[in-house]
Design a protein that fits this description.
The chain is mainly α. It has three helices and no strands. The model has no long low-confidence stretch (mean pLDDT 85).
């Protein structure tokens, strides 16, 4: 009985990972579109002083802009939202797949291979370059430089 309860809890936890509750009020909780999408009527259309249209035209323009922006966005969301969500989901799944199954294994393989090359390179440097540098150091250590100021 306890095993059945544990199995049921595990299935519930797994289901909850894939069916996350979404916030229908705050739809941008990480504020990724904070400075991009805030476009109001006043940001697009403005009449300078002395060049005013009729008040009715200005109000109708405001209402038309606001309502058409609202409904065009909703219509585009209905028509293109789901297909684009599928495309973006596929793209990020592909990126994740490539990273997990290709990039990380290649990097790990490269690190393993380069360790061997690094040891051989280090051995060659210490074998050939260290004695040469020590010999050159001894040769040039006996050189003395004297500076004189001639008048």
């Amino acid at each position: 009985m306890a095993e059945e309860q544990t199995g049921l809890e595990e299935r519930i936890i797994i289901k909850d990972q894939h069916t996350k509750e979404i916030d229908l009020v705050n739809r941008d909780p990480k504020h990724i579109n904070e400075d991009v999408i805030k476009v109001d009527f006043e940001d697009i259309i403005a009449e300078p002083a002395g060049t005013y249209s009729f008040d009715g035209v200005w109000k109708a323009s405001y209402t038309t802009f606001t309502v058409s922006k609202y409904w065009c966005y909703r219509l585009l969301s209905v028509v293109l939202g789901i297909p684009l969500a599928v495309i973006w989901g596929f793209l990020f799944a592909l990126i994740s797949f490539c990273h997990i199954w290709a990039v990380v294994p290649c990097i790990k393989s490269y690190v393993i291979e380069i360790q061997c090359v690094s040891r051989i390179y280090s051995l060659c440097i210490h074998t050939f370059c260290d004695p040469l540098c020590e010999a050159l150091g001894k040769i040039f250590s006996s050189i003395k430089v004297a500076l004189r100021k001639e008048i």
